[in-house]
Design brief:
The complex is a heterodimer of chains A (510) and B (223). Chain A is of the alpha+beta class and 510 residues long. Chain A is 55% helix and 15% strand. Chain B folds into 3 domains: 37 residues; 111 residues, no CATH class; 50 residues, no CATH class. Chain B is extended and about 70 Å long. The chains are: A alpha+beta (510), B alpha+beta (223).
Chain lengths: 510, 223
């Protein structure tokens, strides 16, 4: 028995040791290094002209710590120093992407990136930049430059290998625990995101997703606006997302499920672009997914590449682009050397500081003088400074749906044509804060005469109220309207067609 | 030695991530320190039925009003069409933005600066082609304005108010006659002045926009 326990415990520790300390060529980490650095470089370059304004004491920084009640938590740099260090950050991102002085670059990026993002909670730090900070930290701990990097090329060159570019892909085997930590980190993020969804009470009713899809604080999201009109569909997507987020950390290690789990994840993040208008977040997540790439994946892609290259010369040319770039870049990097790199960086920083000074961000050295403030006409100012403490009844309504089907408590509107004897569900979905609302739903005929009246009270914590109608068989076929009133004020109308039973049968027979 | 360091790093790192999950799940210390932002994964935790934009308005000594945003040198659109100030949901950084704009522009002496929220129903964000498919009514967007902060000429806060949605919720509670009656009855009264000299009790409720209005349970801070 003891021997059995010993063997099981030793196999457990052996599995754990193999999981964290197996030696592999870090293809996944190298790909993450390249992709994440590129995404971050593009993302941060957009902010370079605003570095003084967002990140320095000469501007309007918005330190994250202030949101937590920690004032002066981190020192703010003078404008010129901030611009210089921000430029260093961009250069380090480029060298990290190339794998040139990889370790120093990764540590530099981690420290500077985290510092700068913490100083701008309004337009730089988000959860994707936090995810990136974690990734840069783990890249700094890893030997991510052991393959597909300038550093690797230089090592091979020093070993006297005549054509190191050919052997660049072989890499050097290293302990994979930083890669495992990055993979586990992704699992933790998804687990945390699932818990957030469990905490958000309007999540499972689809309302939270619906309002996010109608938000215009992110980029253009045309599909989201369409999907927001079909909330029943959002409920099912909501369940799929949360189940997948919980399963990720447990299933992604399984050989059979690894690819499907990652494909679902990639689809999920791609959907956040078209539905929520997120752009950088999906790219950061795609970059991190690359850390699951291993040697067998490389072999698979190489064989696929060979097959396609044989059939298509264009494809062959495309696949040789990284090789050509490496051939062009690596000798140059070697020629530059350490001194050259330091000199080049210093020159670039000085140039950047000079250019930023010449740009005169605030226009304080313009010939015509400083900028003038734009005046605001008095009526506009009065309109903006008056507080509106009551909401128009019509603004309390989000949607008014008529249908025969209800899924997850939401009426699904397939058609506006019904027949005698049908049960019709009329649902008013209101936008909080609507207070306690007295609702009326009246059925009007084509002459606007009231045929039927129903009423109900929607309490302040509820989202929707559903009226149920049974269309009597004696109701003449024709056009009718449901009229919704909130606190006795009409807020919406919906026109429907009622067909006779016989008429409907004829249609069915046809 | 190297292996021990690696094991220690793995343990500390995974322990920190686990603490973040625990803290977030049970709301224990999840907003206690800025570092918690790095281990709590509350993406898209909030939502609102109203789209919000923020305006900074300055009033000069002459009584003339000025628009401070968008900044005269141009605004950076970080994540979409909204300006930088629109992401200041806690109204914690607008004073820095106002101070920076005033410092770098020419203007008469400024008396007061207002941070004004503009809210409109997200229903009006539905594009016109979809609106006509869904609604029979005309699309008539309406904006609700609400002064959130008032700063003095040095951009120091002189008055802070809750956000518009919280103010509306507060008003809904305060205008409930049953609650108002109970509140008046239950309010502790300490007789520090002789009863005969005490002012008459005012039965009217506190204005909705006041800082100390009644907040629904969902708005109460747990920390």
């Amino acid at each position: 028995m003891d021997a059995k326990l010993d063997s099981s415990s030793s196999s457990w520790t052996a599995t754990l040791r193999e999981f964290f300390f197996d030696r592999q060529i870090p293809y996944g980490m190298a790909l993450t290094r390249i992709a994440l650095s590129l995404v971050t470089l593009v993302c941060l370059s957009r902010r370079w002209p605003h570095a003084r304004e967002f990140f320095s004491a000469d501007g309007a920084p918005s330190p994250l710590a202030a949101n937590y009640g920690f004032i002066d938590f981190m020192p703010l740099l003078p404008g010129t120093v901030a611009v210089a260090l921000y430029t260093v950050l961009l250069i380090l991102l480029a060298t990290l992407m190339l794998g040139w002085k990889t370790r120093i670059s990764a540590w530099g990026v981690f420290v500077l990136f985290t510092y700068f993002t913490l100083q701008d909670s309004l337009s730089t730090i988000t959860k994707y930049s936090v995810i990136s900070s974690h990734a840069f930290f783990l890249l700094a701990l890893s030997n991510c430059g052991a393959v597909w990097s300038v550093d690797r090329w230089q090592v091979l060159k020093r070993q006297g290998i005549a054509r190191p570019v050919r052997l660049l892909g072989t890499g050097e085997a290293v302990e994979i625990w930083p890669q495992r930590l990055l993979q586990l980190f992704l699992g933790f993020v998804y687990l945390g995101a699932a818990i957030t969804k469990m905490h958000t009470e309007a999540y499972f009713s689809g309302d939270q997703l619906r309002f996010w899809m109608l938000s215009n604080v992110n980029h253009y999201n045309p599909l989201g606006e369409i999907m927001a009109l079909f909330p029943a569909m959002l409920v099912s997507f909501g369940y799929i997302a949360i189940i997948w987020e919980i399963l990720f950390i447990f299933m992604v290690w399984n050989k059979k499920f690894r690819i499907p789990i990652l494909v679902v994840g990639a689809t999920f993040h791609a959907m956040t672009y078209v539905t929520l208008g997120l752009i950088v977040f999906p790219f950061v997540c795609f970059s991190l997914y690359l850390c699951f790439f291993n040697e067998s994946d490389l072999q698979l892609w190489q064989s696929v590449g060979r097959r396609f290259s044989g059939n298509s010369p264009t494809f062959r040319k495309l696949t040789r682009i990284p090789h050509r770039m490496t051939t062009a870049m690596c000798p140059g990097c070697l020629q530059v050397g350490n001194r050259g790199l330091i000199f080049g960086t210093a020159t670039a920083v000085l140039l950047a500081v000079f250019v930023e000074h010449q740009m005169d961000v605030y226009g304080s050295r313009r010939a015509e003088g400083k900028y003038q403030l734009a005046t605001l006409p008095y009526p506009d100012a009065m309109r903006m400074l008056s507080t509106n403490d009551s909401i128009r009844e019509v603004d309390k309504l989000l949607s008014f749906d008529v249908g025969c089907w209800m899924t997850s408590g939401l009426v699904t509107e397939f058609s506006k044509s019904f027949k005698q004897g049908d049960r019709i569900l009329v649902q008013a979905t209101m936008i909080p804060p609507h207070g306690d609302v007295y609702l009326e739903c009246n059925l009007h005929d084509a002459e606007n005469a009231v045929l039927d009246q129903t009423e109900g009270v929607l309490t302040r914590e509820e989202f929707r109220y559903t009226f149920t109608y049974y269309i009597p068989t004696c109701l003449a076929p024709g056009e009718y309207q449901f009229v919704l009133k909130s606190n006795t004020e009409e807020i919406a109308r919906k026109t429907i067609q009622i067909a006779g039973v016989d008429e409907a049968c004829v249609v069915t027979r046809k | 030695m190297k292996r021990y360091l690696a094991v220690a790093t793995i343990t500390i790192y995974l322990g920190t991530l686990s603490w973040g999950i625990f803290s977030h799940t049970f709301a224990v210390g999840h907003v206690s320190h800025p570092a918690m932002y790095y281990v709590v994964w509350d993406m898209f935790c909030g939502w609102s039925g109203y789209e919000c934009r923020q305006h900074l308005i300055a009033q000069g000594e002459s009584g003339q009003y000025y628009k401070l945003n968008p900044a005269p040198w141009g605004e950076f659109k970080a994540f979409g069409p909204a300006d930088r100030i629109d992401y200041d949901s806690f109204a914690a950084h607008s004073q820095n933005i106002a101070r920076n704009i005033l410092r770098n522009t020419e203007h008469e002496p400024i008396q007061r600066i207002f941070l004004v929220e503009e809210n409109w129903s997200k229903r009006y964000n539905i594009p016109d082609y979809l609106w006509s498919m869904k609604f029979e009514e005309e699309k008539e967007s309406y904006s609700y304005f609400h002064t959130r902060m008032i700063y003095n000429s040095e951009c120091e806060p002189v008055e802070s108010r809750m956000g518009w949605i919280a103010a509306i919720n507060s008003k809904n509670l305060e205008t409930d006659p049953r609650l108002a009656k109970m509140r008046n009855k239950a309010k502790p009264f300490y007789a520090v002045t002789p009863y005969s000299q005490a002012p008459a009790q005012n039965a009217s409720s506190i204005p909705a926009y006041a800082t100390d209005g009644i907040l629904p349970a969902s708005y109460q801070q747990t920390q």
